């Protein structure tokens, strides 16, 4: 069994790291370069950088932000936001990204997943899925959680795997920023539908939440933001807790 990964996430707006609750009420959480350096030194397995307003603003991810972070970290680095073409991916990889995360663009043009996987390899392609449970059904949203797409979570997850995604980053909008735990039931259901690695996002609040998302949610990696940004937990604390409780992690 592969070791489980702990991944801090930088949601970036106007050059600053921000964090909200249920994708709303965003608050400043710190400098992107300082936080990146801190997490790289603290033992994070990877770092995810999401330019969260790029799609809504109809622009590309700011390449200078990506370059600044890439120079700072020595761990795998995933970048998302405003990616709509092969040229966008090539530009990000040249500036230090190791993987890219696509969301809104592939919902509008699913064939983009096929093209990106063909040109860059599926190991480079992470499809982010923002899901919200509405009347008992998990619905997929785009544009930073602002637009309902009419797609159902599990059907879309299977499609992106078939098209060539190497990983899925699933964020529960219901749990985002609440610190009440991950959507473990939905994660476990996803794990039963697809055969590619799953990154769980949304809801981390205490050490036990990380254990549950691996043991009950069957996730391959856990992504968290506010719980690390605001010093509620450290990456070292999470990894030590998981190790004590029998979850294999990297050191």
Q: What does the overall shape look like?
A: globular
Kindly provide the name of the CATH class: Alpha Beta
From the 3D coordinates, which CATH architecture would you assign? Alpha-Beta Barrel
How many β-strand stretches?
A: 12
CATH topology-level name:
TIM Barrel
Strand order of the largest sheet: 1-4-5-6-7-10-11-12
Average pLDDT for all residues: 89
**What fraction of residues sit in β-strands?**
25-35%
Structural class: alpha/beta
Distance between the termini: 16 Å
Q: Could you walk me through the main structural features you see in this protein, from its secondary elements to its overall organization?
A:
- The chain is an alpha/beta fold and 251 residues long.
- The protein has one domain: TIM Barrel (Alpha-Beta Barrel), CATH 3.20.20.70.
- Helices cover 34% and strands 29% of the residues.
- It has ten helices and twelve strands.
- The protein has an eight-stranded parallel barrel, surrounded by seven helices.
- Strand 5, helix 3 (86-94) and strand 6 (99-102) form a beta-alpha-beta unit.
- Helix 1 (32-41) packs parallel to helix 2 and helix 8 packs across helix 10 (235-244).
- The longest helix is centred in the middle third of the chain and has 11 residues, at 153-163.
- It is globular.
- Mean pLDDT is 89; it is low at 22-26.
